[in-house]
Amino acid sequence: MSQPQHFVHQVETDQETALDALSQACPLTKSELKSCFSKGAVWLTQGQRKPARLRRVKKKLSKGDSIELYYNPKVLQEVPPQPRLMLDKQQYSVWFKPRGMLSQGSKWADHSALYRWVEMNFQAENETANRQAWIVHRLDRATAGLQLLAHSKKMAQTLTQMFARHQIEKSYQAIVHGKFPVERQTYQTPIDGKPAVTRVELLQYESQRDVSQVGITIESGRKHQIRKHLSAVGFYIVGDRLYGSEAQDSRLNPGHRPDLQLTAYRLEFTCPLNQERLSIELPDNELDLLDLIEPVSHEISPPIPPTAREL
After folding, report:
1. pLDDT score at 294
2. What is the mean pLDDT of the chain?
3. Residue 88 is among the residues annotated as catalytic for this protein
């Protein structure tokens, strides 16, 4: 099967295993089905409960259960880029998510998402089993940068509450088209009817290419917030295929449009385990931004050191 398909099977016999039940609904071999379970393409609905992702092929089902497979060979064959561990506190961890890696999965699969990659591949030296992982905030697939994962439901609740209370500070850097103002700018246009605040400051301007490197902090985490706010005022992020300018991107590199030039480069928060103040920051040579800025040609004073910037 080369095209996406959706298979559904209503269970008619108690104690039937999930693998046996699903094999009745589609022509895939049991070996192929096991891979679908592992990669997060199988869902189970029991009674009035919401559908839940199912990985256990030997789970015993009950009469009336509904098991579904969202089969998309293209998605299932994806091999995600490898993330990098930045900080491990056992109950939570910080990772560098590369561009092209998902933060969360879809109904078709989740093996290419950061949290699932960690569950399947990461094991600390002093541990005998892989950890479960929960996402507590998201980065767009096209955005690189630092992302927190929780390793227990309790820690997931704690970190989610910290984000909601603005107790975790997220900082970004981006390359945008045009000469950004020297004065710090604040954008507050609501996103999807919800409050959203984005603060942007100029770090460097490169006149020959007419691009600016900017530092960004946000007080909320709306979907595509930074990209929407910057595009609304005409400072399109280089490589932004949703809200950017293909014509401007093409002038930078004819014939090859670059990836989205946006990186979440710093997280600052108080550790919920020992109350230590933490600042995890990518060095300049790991921002994964294109080398479009020539320091000798910037037209403003040197940027304020990160520790002195207003958050």
Report:
1. 60
2. 91
3. no
- Residue that terminates a domain, selected from 164, 183, 199: 164
Distance CA 288, CA 36 (A): 33
Q: How many domains does the chain have?
A: 3
Asked whether 237 and 289 are in contact (CB, 8 A), the reply is no
In the set 65, 110, 140, 249, the catalytic residue is 140
**Most confident region among 85-99, 119-133, 289-303 by mean pLDDT:** 85-99
pLDDT of 255 > 90? The answer is no
How does pLDDT run across 259-284, given as a tens digit for each residue? Answer: 999 999 999 999 999 999 999 999 99
Q: Which of 86, 87, 89 is nearest to 272 (CA)?
A: 89
Which amino acid is present at 119?
E
Which position has the token pair 């300049």?
284
Q: Please tell me whether residue 310 adopts helix, strand or coil conformation.
A: coil
Look at strands 92-97 and 84-88 and give their pairing: antiparallel
∠ at Cα 101 (97, 103), nearest 5°? Answer: 75
Cα separation, 197 vs 180, whole angstroms: 18
Q: CATH number, domain at 91?
A: 3.30.70.580
Distances (CA, A) of 143 to 198, 224, 238, 262: 16, 10, 12, 6
150 and 220 inside one domain = no
Determine the average pLDDT of the residues in 142-170: 96
Cα 104 off chain centre by: 7
**Residue 306 scores a pLDDT above 50:** no
**Structure-token pair, residue 33:** 């089905």
Range of the domain at 140: 84-164
CA distance 44 to 67: 5
What's the one-letter identity of residue 101?
M
pLDDT in tens, 74-107: 999 999 999 999 999 999 999 999 999 999 999 9
Between CA 278 and CA 273 the distance in angstroms is: 11
